[in-house]
Description:
The chain is an alpha+beta fold.
Amino acid sequence: MEKDNKTEAAILRKKAEDLLKLEPSETDSKFSHAEMRELIREFAVCQIGLESENKELLLAKEQAETERERTYREIFDASNDTLFVQDIVTGAILDVNKTGLKMYGYSDKQELLKCSIENISASEEGYNEEKIKEMNQKAIDSDYNLFEWRAKKKDGNVFWVQVSLKKVKIGGKNRILTSVHDITEQKSAEGILQDIIEKNPMSIQIVDTEGFTLKVNPAHTALFGSVPPPDFSIFNDFQLKQQGFGELIERIKNGEIVHFPDAYYNAHDLNPELPDVPVWILTVVFPLFDNYGKPERFVFMHKNITDRKLGEQELIIAKEHAEECDRLKSAFLANMSHEIRTPMNGILGFTDLLKGHNLTGEEQNKYIGIIEKSGARLLNIINDIIDISKIESGQMEVSITETNINGQIEYIYAFFKSEAEAKGMQINFQNTLPLNEAFIKTDREKFYSILTNLVKNAIKYTMSGTVEFGYNLKNNYLEFFVKDTGIGIAKDRLKAIFERFVQADIADRQALQGSGLGLAIAKAYIEMLGGTIWVESEEGIGSMFYFTIPYIPSRQVH
Ligand code: ADP
């Protein structure tokens, strides 16, 4: 119909043009009046037809445009994300879709259109006009800008969104098309994950494919005392740590979950500037895969088992100590039976000899002397055993009395002088304090026993030379010394000699009599009196025993 009209119009037009080309006189001769009227009528009809057609066309065009507008609107509103159309110059919101109204909590579109972007942002958190301008400018400069943002609903609630700004032309005008995606859930999932890592009581260390640290949590820093240095690869470190760890590292790299055996670690060993924090750790490692199923990261979770490990070590030490005690006790019993049997045999043997009739007076005296000595030795041993038993069972009591230390030293000197001289040795003493200051409060019996023991040992373990003993006043303590030029003590035995029964444990000891309890008793007594004992010694040169007791003058001037 449209085509027919056009063709008809074209024919008419041709006719009209031909007619107009003719002179008026020619027209008169060619067309009658009736024909002319007919021609004019045809023109009029054709024009009406064209006009009405034109109207239809305009209507169709309008309809098409409305249709397009509706489609655009439907797409605009169907988006799950908020869409804003913004003025590129002022940033004003020109249009918003339905999702936008819902997301921002507005029911009246006009109300939202009156808002600026700052009004619907958490401006109080810094998401303000200045930042908005900066983001828009970026989008204008590079056509596109994607970023996270804190948006604000009408009721003031703030939420996380991801915003994409795109420079577009709408209706021939430059605009910014803003798309806003609500990422609250994603953010809260990220937050939970972050919390799981940050607040985990187990140490977490995330490393790359080479074992270099990407992230650690606070528990890791607390456990190891420092953040791993950038050049520290846990793979390399573990490989060196223990045999078999290299194989486990390979399994991790192949994507397996691996549980490591207990391992010792100290950052200080790697770098002396790092704190010296030795720890025992139990480690489990699991891989994180990329989209192609290839391990791209590894999570090391370490548990601090230092306490358990130390407990185990203490148990081992305690067990070894118990075994050592048991061994020493057995050796002590064997030694004791020898120590008791020797003087016992002496007593019985010489008592028997005394029964003989042909003994001279001199012989009788000699035998009686031996019996006496053996008896004394036996008594000594029995006393030591009783004392150590009392100490061990906590029955030994301290009895503080006034003690003249100068007097005690002189007495001990006089007691041992002949014995030392009989061995061809010299014995000297040194009393430092004047007599009136030498009266102190201590347990006299114990003090006497301690010093006697040390001097007796000094003489016993010295073949020639000098034994010297005395004291000095140092910081309210009396520091006693007993020095000899004897056989000395091996370095590795310096501590052991203060243990009970130790003599019997010294394999290559000189065959010198003694219970092996003397120093253990002395040490226990010194500690009861509030002091300490120690020794300095060199084999073949001599020994110097020291002990302290508090200097508590008894304030009696004599
Ligand atoms: P003992 O009865 O064997 O003398 P002690 O407890 O008094 O027992 O001494 C323990 C061990 O310490 C001795 O067996 C000896 O090996 C060593 N010892 C003690 N005093 C001296 C010393 N002055 N010189 C060398 N060794 C000593």
